[in-house]
């Protein structure tokens, strides 16, 4: 991508971030977005990281300010570590609340850019890449995480970057150290945004490396070792962060483990994927009532809706570019299946039909995550790539027919 196109993406993303979060920009210094408790939790986390590291010269992953006087470990607390660290130099310059809000707005811009970069690398279409970036960064799921103040799950900007770096590594076939280091850096940064992302990207890596080996089984020496090294480098960077977490998880009766029923509560119902965006100004009220009826009382379900336009473009892209789209269809379907949780929820009815997530749930690390519906984030990345294929198909059709060009641009818009 050239500089002009990068500037266009970033400018469009910034304008949309200000629009979708308005009036936050006008209240930057004394308001935060998000439901009470969740947003305040992350605001406290940003403050605590600076307080612990700069003022107290202590670990930010342990505090005596909660559950005083015994204190408590914050290893499994959703600290949004990377952005909390980035906020430290900004807090004395701007203040805690403005720094917190500016980082939130920057996440939207970075997510749009990283998704557009991945879509452009896959499809070669600028218009498709721009649509993919906007559709993913400002889609219903991301705006839901913003509205409820879940900054850890909003911070998905490194997921497309890791997928892009791994794609280039596997396509290069060999010791492409630039791609290896990019994979390791993106994976480490994603982990420091929220450690659950390591599970998502680890599963994606198994599918991507498996697909590469299936295409070229004789090239396994050029595919497998570089991918393993990339993961090992990321693990080496994260080792001081990961080892205490593993020790805590191996202790007697760790508090963070969840029961299967809690995981079921936070699994997606099949019907939720068909509902419009609950935040829509047109039919959002109806969609929110339908989503509430599909879930247990008191549960705030993760929004997994997708734009119908995005779905239509993704379908067009899948049909028109079957060879290139096949991998993204398979990966998207796998993560969609995982987002349904351990047992199928079918249009408001809880069944006993076991699903693949039940096997993953036997791992202690997965038991902690609690929200299978969030696996749909990777499905949405795949849908955005397929939609970029769809836009590219429309534009090619318009170029071949001058009469159809205005209709094509309108459809792409």
Q: What features would you describe in this structure?
A:
This protein is mostly helical and about 425 residues long. Helix content is about 65%, strand content about 5%. The strands form two sheets. A two-stranded antiparallel sheet has the order 1-2. A two-stranded antiparallel ribbon has the order 3-4. Helix 15 (about 310-320) packs across helix 16. It is globular and about 70 Å long. The two termini are about 20 Å apart. About 45% of the residues are buried.
Topology, number of strands: 4
Continuous helix count: 20
Radius of gyration based on Cα positions:
21 Å
Q: Element order, helices and strands? A: HHEEHHHHHHHHHHHHHHEEHHHH
């Amino acid at each position: 991508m050239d500089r002009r196109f990068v500037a266009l993406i970033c400018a469009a993303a910034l304008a949309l971030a200000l629009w979708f979060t308005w009036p936050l920009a006008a209240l930057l210094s004394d308001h935060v977005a998000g439901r009470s408790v969740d947003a305040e939790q992350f605001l406290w986390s940003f403050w605590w990281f600076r307080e612990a590291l700069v003022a107290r010269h202590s670990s930010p992953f342990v505090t005596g300010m909660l559950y005083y006087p015994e204190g408590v470990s914050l290893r499994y607390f959703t600290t949004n570590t990377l952005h909390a660290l980035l906020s430290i130099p900004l807090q004395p310059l701007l203040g805690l609340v403005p720094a917190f809000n500016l980082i939130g707005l920057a996440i939207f811009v970075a997510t749009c850019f990283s998704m557009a970069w991945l879509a452009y690398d896959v499809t070669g279409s600028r218009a498709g890449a721009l649509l993919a970036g906007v559709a993913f960064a400002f889609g219903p799921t991301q705006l839901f995480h913003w509205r409820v103040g879940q900054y850890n799950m909003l911070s998905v900007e490194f997921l497309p970057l890791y997928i892009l770096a791994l794609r280039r590594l596997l396509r290069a076939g060999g010791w492409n150290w630039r791609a290896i280091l990019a994979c390791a850096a993106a994976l480490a940064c994603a982990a420091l945004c929220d450690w659950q992302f390591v599970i998502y990207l680890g599963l994606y890596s198994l599918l991507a490396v498996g697909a590469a080996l299936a295409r070229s089984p004789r090239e396994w020496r050029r595919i497998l070792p570089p991918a393993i090294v990339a993961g090992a480098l990321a693990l080496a960077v994260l080792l001081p962060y990961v080892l205490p977490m593993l020790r805590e998880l191996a202790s007697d009766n760790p508090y963070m483990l969840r029961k299967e029923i809690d995981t079921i509560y936070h699994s997606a119902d099949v019907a939720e994927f068909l509902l419009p965006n609950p935040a829509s100004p047109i039919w959002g009220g109806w969609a929110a009532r339908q989503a509430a009826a599909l879930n247990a009382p008191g549960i705030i379900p993760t929004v997994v809706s997708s734009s119908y336009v995005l779905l239509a473009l993704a379908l067009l892209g899948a049909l028109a570019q079957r060879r290139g789209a096949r991998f993204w269809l398979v990966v998207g379907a796998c993560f969609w299946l995982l987002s349904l949780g351990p047992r199928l929820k079918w249009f408001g009815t809880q069944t006993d039909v076991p699903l693949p997530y039940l096997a993953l749930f036997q791992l202690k690390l997965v038991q902690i995550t609690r929200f299978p519906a969030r696996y749909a984030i990777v499905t949405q990345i795949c849908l955005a790539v397929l939609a970029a294929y769809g836009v590219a198909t429309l534009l090619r059709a318009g170029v071949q027919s001058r009469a159809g060009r205005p209709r094509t641009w309108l459809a792409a818009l």
